[in-house]
Design brief:
This protein is α+β, with helices and mostly antiparallel strands. It has three domains: about 130 residues, no CATH class; about 130 residues, no CATH class; about 55 residues, no CATH class. It is built from nine helices and twelve strands. Helix 5 packs across helix 6 and helix 5 runs antiparallel to helix 7. It is elongated and about 85 Å long. This is DUF3039 domain-containing protein. InterPro entries: DUF3039 (IPR021400).
């Protein structure tokens, strides 16, 4: 489940990599112990981290390293080099994850007290080299990164399914999608029917799209269902205020040919392994205050008086008011 790609331990980041950064932001986060904002650790902007990540990837047969560090006998540490930087990589025999457990500069033809190899030998001879190994906080961050990676991969898969469905129905028709759960491939999360209706009437021409989401029992009302819903809506039509909702059914209208154009846009995103991003609304809406407070905190969607379904996440004071909401609000009886 975990990526095998080499990643630094927090000890190595804090104690060994105090210089050589190509961006000051990562170093600032380290000093402030804002570790959750650093992931993925294997992509931090330091030459020896980049070397480690590039040398130890998914396939052990493609590992690239100088050899075993001979001055360390208590652990099997593999040596990597990047200019003057040196690194020691340890592979966890249980998880298979590779860790950059120590790093430093080669100095004074290896006779300098601060030379990487001299320091490694001192740690080994003192019996303290095991302190280089990952600790509980390292493993927590690894689990967090793995969860985020699996969720991103799942969303990319859903986006690909939407693309294939849209290719089939963009000119009209219905296609059914079965979506699995992120961590359990064999378990179904939802069945989704995607329908496009091409309306060509005198005075009205549009391509209407209908999205019906039937979530399996046990997942109804969960955050996972919400993430699936948002990924589907954003993939099909990114403007967050463009969708209308009735229970598990969502609908929106586009100009003729818009879904064919969206298909081409999605194909580009899928090929680049990039997720579609939402587009924020351009007007503020009237929503019941009791619904608004909880939804803003929890990221849930609400229905405005005009019928628009959206997640409140913008400063409504700086936006023009929705004309339909204003009219309907004015029609309410005074209390």
């Amino acid at each position: 489940m975990h990526s095998r790609r080499a990643r630094p331990t927090l000890r190595a980041l804090a104690d060994d990599l105090t210089s050589g950064w190509t961006s000051p932001l990562a170093l600032r986060y380290l000093r402030d112990k804002r570790y959750d904002e650093l992931h993925p650790l294997s992509e931090l902007p330091h030459p020896i981290i980049a070397k480690a990540a590039g040398s130890f990837g998914a396939d052990p047969a493609e590992d690239s390293f100088v050899g075993q560090i001979v001055c360390v006998t208590q652990l099997r540490l593999l040596e990597i080099k990047s200019a003057q930087w040196r690194g020691a990589v340890w592979e966890d025999p249980e998880s298979g994850v590779c860790w950059l457990v120590a790093a430093g500069l080669a100095k004074g033809e290896h006779r300098d007290h601060d030379d990487f190899y001299q320091r490694a030998k001192r740690e080994n001879d003192s019996g303290d080299v095991a302190r280089w190994l990952p600790v509980d906080e390292d493993k927590r961050l690894l689990r967090r990164e793995t969860a985020a990676r699996l969720m991103t991969e799942w969303e990319l898969e859903v986006q690909g399914q939407v693309l294939e469905a849209l290719r089939r129905v963009r000119d009209g028709g219905m296609h059914r999608i079965e979506v699995r759960q992120p961590r359990h491939v064999e378990r179904k999360l939802a069945v989704i029917d995607l329908t496009v209706t091409a309306v060509r009437e005198e005075g009205y021409q549009a391509d209407e799209i209908l999205l019906e989401i039937d979530t399996v029992q046990g997942s109804i009302g969960t955050n996972l269902e919400w993430q699936l819903t948002m990924r589907m809506l954003i993939t099909l039509s990114p403007p967050v205020q463009s969708w209308d909702r009735y229970k598990g059914t969502y609908s929106t209208i586009a100009e003729p040919g818009a879904w064919a154009e969206r298909t081409d846009q999605l194909a580009t995103l899928v090929e680049a392994h990039e997720l579609a991003v939402s587009q924020l609304g351009t007007s503020s809406h009237f929503v019941h205050a009791r619904h608004l407070a909880g939804s803003t905190i929890e990221g849930r969607a609400v229905r405005a008086m005009c019928g628009v379904y959206f997640v409140p996440m913008q400063d409504h004071e700086s936006m023009p008011k929705c004309e339909t909401c204003s009219i309907r609000y004015g029609e309410l009886p005074e209390q």
